[in-house]
Known about the structure:
Layout lengths: L3 E5 L5 E6 L6 H5 L5 E7 L3 H13 L3 E7 L8 H14 L6 E6 L1 H13 L5 E6 L2 H7 L4 E6 L2 E8 L4 E5 L8 H17 L2 H9 L1 H4 L7 H18 L14 H10 L6 H18 L5 H13 L11 H7 L12 E7 L2 E6 L3 H11 L2
Parallel strand pairs: 2-9, 3-4, 3-5, 5-6, 6-9
Antiparallel strand pairs: 1-2, 7-8, 10-11
Bound molecules: nicotinamide-adenine-dinucleotide, the ligand O=C(O)C(=O)C[C@@H](O)[C@H](O)[C@H](O)COP(=O)(O)O and zinc ion.
Amino acid sequence: MTVRRIGVGGAQPYDVVVGGGVFGELPGQVGPDAAQVAVIRPDSLGEVARPALRVLEAAGYTVHDMGVPDGEAAKNVTVAADLWGRLGRAGFTRTDAVVGIGGGATTDLAGFAAATWLRGVRVVLVPTTLLGMVDAAVGGKTGINTTEGKNLVGAFHPPAGVLCDVATLPSLPAADYAGGLAEIVKAGFIADPVILDRIEDDPDGATRPEGRHTRELIERAIAVKAEVVSGDLRESGQREMLNYGHTLGHAIERVENYTFRHGYAVAIGMVFAAELARIDGRIDAGTVRRHRAILTSVGLPTAYSGEAWRGLRESMRVDKKARGAALRFVVLDNVGEPSILADPSEEMLDAAYGAVSA
Length: 358
Ligand SMILES: NC(=O)c1ccc[n+]([C@@H]2O[C@H](COP(=O)([O-])OP(=O)(O)OC[C@H]3O[C@@H](n4cnc5c(N)ncnc54)[C@H](O)[C@@H]3O)[C@@H](O)[C@H]2O)c1
Ligand SMILES: O=C(O)C(=O)C[C@@H](O)[C@H](O)[C@H](O)COP(=O)(O)O
Ligand SMILES: [Zn+2]
């Protein structure tokens, strides 16, 4: 299987390595300075993490296997504090390193632990979900959720390297695989319409790791993310476009107490943002229909409870793109042309939600 390296620029450039069996590159990414390595991974992913643990042990590191709760259940301050305790007891110093293995929730947590331990130690990320590979592990956003909102506590802390071993994908449940497709579709709508063409060409294949266009979809989505974050690590401008669908999406996750898949919430959020753009006269009804058709074709939801609207509207207030009382949404002026819609009226918001409410 071919290996592709996608470079991420910035003050500390690194590679996103995509291929089969790339775990072997872990020691090279962890580097020669570390004596100890903390491997942070879900308790449930012992089998998936084992080859990585073996490679690190064989390279001579003292490896601490730090299991955490599965997925989103670990992305909170209780688990982060437990990790700080374990790092402290192991005597982790500034030259030691963290390796995060798992889905996006786990790599966000591992990145956050690395960002906060001693104010920042080296972290290498090994995403094992589609979503982790195409989005979460790339770009240096780390964080945890709080009761009040999604990712409200975090830090920008880019990894030293990202290893996407596509051989881990076949064991991923289909529903979680579909969640990753939402971020791939997002990359298509905001920056690379070829992604949309490939999914429309073979929607069934898009839902499977062995699909005809799967490698291309993964690499194109990573390339979109790498390009954006290379120029704007701290989200002072262009990076906001990666938040397409996330203002409503994060609010849905919050009202569901973080038990609703991120990708599913973002899928609904993208249709909401598309409806907002249509109401604002930026895109036509056909482009909104294209959102629904593509998302539905790969098994993603495009509607949500009408009764939830008041709670969602309240939750959106803490969106990181908001400025004061003004909400700011990423919308499209056209496919591949994202822009910001600032402070839409309550009537517009109500109308757009009416169009996605079930
Ligand atoms: N930092 C960022 O830039 C960024 C970007 C996008 C999303 N995110 C975050 O990513 C998270 C969503 O990530 P996700 O969709 O990967 O969810 P997840 O991390 O919850 O993983 C989904 C499920 O798949 C399991 N799993 C992981 N790899 C597996 C494998 N190879 N085989 C079988 N099961 C496997 C996990 O244990 C979990 O149960 C959210 O918290 C979201 O906020 C962050
Ligand atoms: O990397 C980014 O920037 C993104 O917005 C990517 C999103 O897919 C991701 O879910 C991110 O975690 C959202 O960031 P937040 O700052 O809105 O919490
Ligand atoms: Zn996301």
